[in-house]
Automatic annotation (TrEMBL), chains A, B:
One of its GO terms (biological process) is glycine biosynthetic process, by transamination of glyoxylate. Its EC number is 1.12.-.-. It comes from the Bacteria. Its cofactor is pyridoxal 5'-phosphate. The modification N6-(pyridoxal phosphate)lysine is found at residue 191. Residues 28-250 form the Aminotransferase class V domain. Belongs to the class-V pyridoxal-phosphate-dependent aminotransferase family. It is an enzyme of class 1 (oxidoreductase). This is Soluble hydrogenase 42 kDa subunit.
């Protein structure tokens, strides 16, 4: 069948917001020009609004992983003890980054797909300097109640910092840094913000700003904090992506609640459709960032991928221990109800054709 | 005067190659798709050709500085002794990165604008594990003979690694990694390749690949070496910029010698014009990446900047100890002889108006 345009139904990168594409087609900005500084500050302020922080949002040129490492490296010293619940590919990444940075990592192993329940945090014996959480674990499609977890953890360790991977939750699910008792978070440009990959966004609460233990060079947050409030960055930023960030934020922030409701509804439609086809969802609690279903008995992932591809859509399989066992379909990118209807019907046809 | 389009005459970011803009306006690629892997490998192979290496080129999502830190962190261990000639803002950056990474740094201080002469390397008493050089020191406009320097250094310390910042020399001036006796180099997307900022390119000679001492997480080169030959990257890459890189390389590589001759000629035209106006060049040896002139007696930088801006062009001033003393004009971006003529005449008018 003729396909005019392939649709990206992956949990990042995603279908771009037209305002991002428009920003990327502009002539090159010099990052030290007044125009660039204005755009940088607009992006920074917009991100602070999205993270709901009175502290600071920072833009780093790198993938979300660079932002995760920046937070670990700048908030904890070697030898500090952190608790890391591991229940997917991205929570596993927290554990590895912390270990590589010389922290003492207490892993709490959970079955992939499960979420962390506040009472689980009553077990491990402290003291801990930090808790590293994954809000939306997109490898399994699970959403953690990071607010409840922060509360439970801080009841035991009031001095500890709670650091959250919000890479596939910011702009997709509700988020409130200080309001939820969190101290720092990280997000990325190629997820809920519908921009290309290349920027990490980190947020530091006023308390996290007081606890900074800066390390490293490129990912040293003290260097960035010195200059980003003037619309500059310590090193040449991916300023074209900063401009795309600012442009999409301008469109998105005025109606963020409606946008989150849409993402929720789209995901419900896909889950309802999949369950109607007899598919079993992987996550214990569903994140609106992506659906994640076990493959039907006797069906291999490449067949499902191919069935979607023939109909003009790119989906993605499992990662880590879920590789070859699941498939994931996401409408986190630029899309609305119309797309959810199209993808629901496409999913029906693709899976019935197996 | 009406200006239809501002021209960026800065030594990075630069005027974009139309093929870069075209690549950036395409729909989002998923970095794990076959199409993306093909583009990634095309960029990687093209960069290896440009660096002239039989080793490996790697693409990192970050600024040139991230590539500098990656090389220092992965080629040297804490306590290793490195020699760093310091004669500008970027050679100063080498020294700081090496120090921050726990290396023992022997600084060789030179006047800014001077180049390093091979005989200077006979002085410092070894042993040294490395020499960190800046090929084109764009803060002063100076070009180092890195081939002669590598030869002189290795005559004394044959086991040492010579690591070169080629950020404003690759695609602007001749370069040959192993052919010149160099072990590793770094470049950036927003310079001679005429793409937006956001990617660092590093090159490792076969010998450097044998000497790897991987450290860190995001900038760990062992993680990248494992996957980049399959067209993947350890962390989500700025795949849109990778596509831009591949697109420009495809245009540029077949006639690279003519391109370098053009950059050389453009810079000569600007230096000849400036000297005809009584301006004194800063660099002892001129890099084709940028001109750098001392400001005329009694003229402040903002006046010169403004005189260029009124005529539709953005230039840049000095950095570090040259701040307020010099101005720089570069045609490293997408431009040909026509632009050199325009900028020469613009410079004449702008400076006579002072």
């Amino acid at each position: 069948m003729l396909v005019y345009r392939n649709r990206l139904l992956t949990p990042g990168p995603v279908e771009l917001h037209p305002k991002a594409l428009e920003a990327l087609s502009r002539p090159q900005l010099h990052h030290r020009s007044d125009a660039a500084k204005q755009v940088f500050l607009q992006a920074k302020r917009g991100l602070e609004q999205a993270f709901q922080t009175q502290g600071q949002a920072l833009l780093l040129t790198g993938s979300g992983t660079s932002g995760m490492e920046a937070l670990v490296q700048n908030l904890f010293a070697p030898g500090d003890r952190v608790l890391v619940p591991v229940h997917g590919n991205f929570s596993e990444r927290w554990a590895r980054i912390a270990q590589q940075a010389g922290l003492e990592v207490e892993r709490m192993e959970l079955e992939w797909g499960r979420v962390v329940h506040p009472e689980y945090l009553e077990g491990p014996s402290g003291p801990f300097q930090g808790l590293l959480l994954t809000h939306s674990e997109s490898s399994t499609g699970a959403l953690n109640d990071v607010q409840g977890l922060a509360q439970a953890f801080k009841a035991r360790f009031p001095q500890a910092l709670v650091v959250v991977d919000a890479i596939t939750s910011l702009f997709v699910s509700e988020f409130a840094l200080e309001g939820w008792g969190l101290d720092a978070a990280v997000a990325g440009s190629q997820k809920g913000l519908m921009c290309p990959p290349g920027l990490a966004y980190v947020a530091l609460s006023p308390r996290a700003l007081e606890c900074l233990k800066p390390r490293g060079f490129y990912l040293n947050l003290a260097s960035e904090l010195k200059v980003q409030n003037s619309g500059e960055s310590a090193w040449t930023p991916a300023i074209n992506l900063v401009a795309a960030t600012a442009a999409v934020l301008e469109e998105l922030l005025p109606h963020l609640p409606e946008h989150l409701a849409l993402k929720q509804r789209q995901n419900q439609i896909l889950y309802t459709t999949g369950q109607g086809l007899g598919l079993k969802p992987v996550p214990e609690v569903q994140s609106p960032a992506t659906t994640c279903f076990y493959l039907p008995e006797g069906t291999a992932y490449p067949q499902v991928k191919e069935a979607f591809a023939r109909r003009g859509a790119t989906i993605i399989g499992g990662q880590g221990q879920l590789k070859g066992k699941v498939f994931r379909v996401s409408l986190m990118g630029y899309s609305d109800l119309y797309d959810a209807y199209a993808v629901a019907e496409l999913m029906r046809e693709a899976l019935r054709s197996q």
